[in-house]
Design a protein that fits this description.
Elements: E1 7-12, E2 27-32, H1 45-49, E3 57-61, E4 74-77, H2 84-89, H3 91-112, E5 115-121, H4 148-168, E6 172-177, E7 180-181, H5 192-202, E8 206-209, E9 215-217, E10 219-220, H6 221-233, E11 240-242, E12 247-249, H7 250-261, E13 267-270, H8 285-291, H9 299-314
Helix pairs in contact: 3-4, 5-7, 5-9, 7-9
The structure holds uridine-5'-diphosphate-glucuronic acid.
Length: about 325
């Protein structure tokens, strides 16, 4: 095995991470962990194109639940389906990814002395009884519900990170990501922003799940990537909430999408799924203080950037006014 300097290992389920921010002088291993095989490479082919063939880039297709031996300095452990429809599709594999996958990556970090960043989630707070959520809140999670493969999986992943840190001195970083959206998302991802934008562009009704008053706080992907890189390269282990505190009900989100993208579409109320959190908003005081980070892109600007990309991929150009 050859020794390389400044190597970064990025682990993702599919190629949706904003690689544009990665320094091209670093050696990058981009490791893709595939759960739903036909989902592979949807979304960001174009983003990846400029990296394929780059002398300092290597793409490895690997399942993170199997051990991996590479020489790296930093590990961004993003591997896991994040869309509820995908993580609930194969819950056993989802929890294996969070438990065995995280153990494998911590084992790798220990072996090569790498720093490891885990992307945990706002879902560790469950259906929160405190609002907004600070990192000190322990959460309200159903341990046997249909979402628990993800929620509890990420909670165990956080525990493993801290146990390896305390017992073996591994350098860890934990980000708690709040709902993230942006260009190059899988069109069929199933999460609310991509659903609404694709529906509006296709002229279909926007499917608001009941009651519609539940809230989320949406963070634009470029802001998220900046936050993750600041966390990785800073001194604080976390956990740190990385998200945009702008909070919207799903009905408000639908109204914004309708107004910005297609005022002619209707909004239809559909059935929700069990344990859907009723409210979610990050308290980002810690990220501001410790990382000097806060998001810059407001929802309405981010939605327009996402619309352009979705229109191109769906081949539905914007109507020009006569
Ligand atoms: O987007 C994310 O980053 C987050 O996505 C999911 O969390 P969730 O908030 O349930 O994501 P969505 O499936 O986008 O649902 C958000 C809200 O929109 C509603 N929704 C969803 C889809 C839809 O077509 N219509 C609709 O109203 C859902 O009922 C829910 O209340 C993951 O579980 C999180 O870990 C992840 O961080």
């Amino acid at each position: 095995m050859h020794i390389v300097e400044n190597s970064v290992l990025l682990l993702c389920r599919s190629v949706q991470t904003n690689l544009a921010k990665v320094d091209q002088s670093d050696r990058v291993f981009f490791l893709v962990q595939v759960i739903v095989a036909d989902n592979f490479f949807t979304g960001s082919k174009d983003n990846l194109k400029k990296w394929i063939g780059h002398p300092r880039f290597e793409l490895i297709r690997h399942d993170v639940t199997e051990p991996l031996l590479v020489e790296v300095d930093q590990i961004y452990h993003l591997a896991c389906p994040a869309s509820p429809i995908f993580y609930k599709h194969n819950p056993v594999k989802t929890i294996k990814t969070n438990v065995i996958g995280t153990l494998n990556m911590l084992g790798l970090a220990k072996r090569v002395g790498a720093r490891i960043l885990l992307t945990s989630t706002s879902e560790v707070y469950g259906d929160p009884l405190e609002h907004p959520q600070t990192e000190a809140y322990w959460g309200n999670v159903n341990p046997i519900g249909v979402r628990s493969c993800y929620d509890e999986g990420k909670r165990v992943a956080e525990t493993l990170m801290f146990d390896y840190h305390r017992q073996h001195g591994i350098e860890i970083r934990i980000a708690r990501i709040f709902n993230t959206y942006g260009p190059r998302m899988n069109i069929d991802d199933g999460r609310v922003v991509s659903n609404f934008i694709a529906q509006a562009i296709r002229g279909e009704a926007l499917t608001v799940q009941k009651p519609g008053t539940q809230t989320r706080s949406f963070c634009y992907v470029a802001d998220m990537v900046n936050g993750l890189m600041k966390l990785m390269n800073g001194d604080n282990t976390g956990p740190i909430n990385i998200g945009n505190p702008g909070e919207f009900t799903m009905l408000e989100l639908a109204e914004n999408v309708k107004e910005l993208i297609n005022p002619e579409v209707t909004v239809t109320m559909t059935e929700n799924t069990p344990d859907d959190p009723r409210q979610r908003k990050p308290d980002i005081t810690k990220a501001k203080e410790v990382l000097d980070w806060e998001p810059k892109v407001v929802l309405r600007d981010g939605l327009v950037l996402m619309e352009d990309d979705f229109r191109e991929r769906l081949a539905v150009p914007k109507k020009t006014k006569a």
